[in-house]
Write a structure and sequence with these properties.
Largest sheet: 2 strands, parallel
Radius of gyration: 12 Å
Strand order of the largest sheet: 1-2
Strand content: 5-15%
Number of domains: 1
Helix content: 25-40%
Shape: globular
Order of helices and strands: HHEE
Number of strands: 2
């Protein structure tokens, strides 16, 4: 993250529709409601950076606005 501050955004009506699409699209994982909400909201805000302690889903999701998310904290690979 470029700033020590975090912003919290709540899903909007269109985000809930996108969440349902994402959960169907990635149903073989399965992608849960919370992760789908983060993806849908990040897409709406056109943000690339996502903070998460659970990278499993975010490493494989293809957002509509960028090729991939920049996940934080960064992996120690």
């Amino acid at each position: 993250m470029r700033s020590p501050q975090f912003a919290i955004y709540h899903p909007m009506d269109d985000d809930f529709r996108r969440m349902a699409v994402l959960m169907r699209q990635y149903s073989d994982w399965p992608l849960g409601l919370a992760d789908a909400a983060v993806v849908a909201t990040a897409e709406r805000l056109k943000t690339v950076e996502v903070a998460t302690v659970d990278r499993r889903h975010f490493e494989h999701i293809k957002p509509v606005h960028v090729s991939h998310f920049m996940l934080y904290p960064q992996s120690a690979r």
